[in-house]
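#help-structures
NK: newbie question, is this the right format to request a structure? protein is Dimethylglycine dehydrogenase
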Amino acid sequence: MKTHAQAVVIGGGVVGCSVLYHLTKAGWRDVMLIERSELTSGSTWHAAGGFHTLNGDPNVAKLQAYTIGLYKEIEAISGQSCGLHLTGGLQLAGTPERMEWLKMAKARGRYLGMELEIISPKEAKDLLPLIDERHFVGALWDPIEGHLDPAGTTHAYARSARIGGAEIVLRNRVTDLVQNPDGTWQVVTEQGTVHAEHVVNCGGLWAREVGRMVGLELPVLAMEHMYVLTEDMPEVAEINRTTGKEVVHAIDFEGEIYIRQERGGMLMGTYEKACRPWSPREAPWSFGQELLVPDLDRIAPSLEVGFAHFPAFERAGIKQVINGPFTFAPDGNPLVGPVRGLRNFWCACAVMAGFSQGGGVGLALSNWMVHGDPGFDVWAMDVARFGSWATLGYTNAKVRENYSRRFSIRFPNEELPAARPMQTTPLYDRMRAQGAVMGDSWGLETPLWFAPEGVEPRDIVSFRRSNDFPHVKAECIAVRERVGVTEIANFAKYEIGGPGAEAFLSRLMTNRMPRAGRIVLTPMLNENGKLIGDFTIARLSSGRDGDRFMMFGSSQAQVHHMRWFERHLPPDGSVTIEPLGMKLVGLSIAGPKARHVLARLTDEDVSDKAFPFMSFRAMDIAAVPAMIGRISYTGDLGYEIWVAPEYQRRLYEKVMEAGADVGIVNFGMRALLSLRLEKNFPTWYRELRPIYGPYEADVGRFVDLSKPDFIGRDAAAREFADGPKLKRVTFRVDAADADVIGDEPVWHDGRVVGWVTSGGYGHYVDASLAQGYVPAHLADGAHGTFEIEIIGERRPARIQPTPLFDPDGLRMRG
């Protein structure tokens, strides 16, 4: 074993071998994989080996498509067969709601180029004679689905990596990781120490333990997963004989099961409700190529449904029950990328669907390590998407919930209950007492809407307009016509200071920094000129010791952004940046009577002249120390008031008292998002993502190309000069009883040309609205006919070039 490597990959499962191969493919030759036992010794060897392209996040689906396309490549390089069986697959719907979900899945696949087909139960039975079609209302057919040999595929990656120059060391456990002062690593193993510039945690079942070596508690948990293998079945032999093909894959959502052919019999696996974690606190290093004790009683309810839906299984003998552990993150997606605060320490773990996602994970991570950017929008897999609230107990509860719901529908207005409430503001109980239906916003309980007296405060989940519709409408109208108040603690809040603060922010952001007492809006770009952030920045003060800024952004991206900020901090200590989290909470008051309410709470002059639009300063509000900005995401006259949490309850009570005679109301997040749609305002993670440039996203007015040196400037200047290829637009949609939720295809003259990023109902303007991206030459809407596909139905849509509410911005400017 050599004693130095540019990168050491820890873990020899399919993901670790994929990362190793992709590093060699990207040009790194001095790379090493260290495995405590043999390749595939964790979860890989007992995996069912299925693969598919379809995913709820289109960006993850693209990486899954890459993974499947990669198998021929590594077979050709290595000479090792992956044992590919491309059978195609059925997703079977047993309810009308599931059929709606499948229609939406097919629609998402349209703009990814996937050849999916909605078929009838009879057509499904023609493809899969094993089913009793009476239990189903339809199905989705996907020709790019199948299974492979897990061991063969892993060895194909490994051999391809070796051919590329990599070294693989087996039977050698990593026992410790020590970072040197220069950021490199001492990888301590049973056979000696390796000095590495980079370390990649592909530990699989032991990813949590590898993380703990560097003081990291990763939100990952292994779950027991069972599938059964049948004896040879005559029905399978008959299908093989008459069709000349293998039995197709199938997922039966109501049974929570999946099936495929295995030699002359069948495999049936289940994601049962009565799920069980494996080694929830610490994974034993002694665990090897062994299985867990089967527990057929636990999966019996799913098997009973499976036997009814696929009668031939009931007549078949069970040859073997496989029970083995697989790792999951709280939301079921992988944990990929660099870890904040640990230079050159990378993760590629919790990849539960390793044979669908492993290749894409390896590609994205190798790009990130070699080129500084993953090359794709991998937000759904970024290890930075979780905060410190994702503790061991939280992870245990959420992974159980996710596992037990793996084949359940997640409705757009559905809030899942596990590990909640986790974080609350001082107003939580007060909001609940007033009928608030709460949502989870990056671990924080946030009011979504308020049920009036006599109405049960709960969501009836649906893909269509639901029971909250009239109540959210009432909140929107109250804000537009009077005044409303909402919590804004779920923003990310940062304080930046020091003599280098202005230069630091100016380098990171596209806009110029404001003078004292003023606010600017600014995107943040990566080196390729793509959007990686969207911020409101206020300068509180200037002085001999430097400047003090407040910055507000998306809470979901706080760790992601802090990782970027810390990477670019000047080494001389001239800048300090602190994420404030729950040290700062706040309220937003908005509507034509907002100034009336504010004036009653302070002795300061808050007139337009004294406190104009985009102002920011400290002042006492309701006798409590506060910072206040003259800005509102509603697009109306409004103020954001920030206070320490100990003052929030008093502030809220005094705001409600001051607004009582003008009809002040509470409004929630759903009303806020409706109001922002009426102003064509974009939002982070939907319209603003790392696959779009600022001119594509129509935020170019916040990019100051006269600044010479901000990150991404040259790429942004090229986009401006050449013109964007895509353009963000707002559509007014002729919807029926359902509005867009995101990821629907946009049709133009009979073909798919774009996609929806977000939308909903604009309650004050009384219109169904959608934002999305279309080719720039179509963005004026002057030619042809647009449609947006909503739950399988193409609805007429037309581009709305100016906001439907207050297009000139007179209300918010006062």
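mod (FA): yep, format's fine, and the tokens are attached above. The two ends are 71 Å apart (CA to CA).
NK: thank you!
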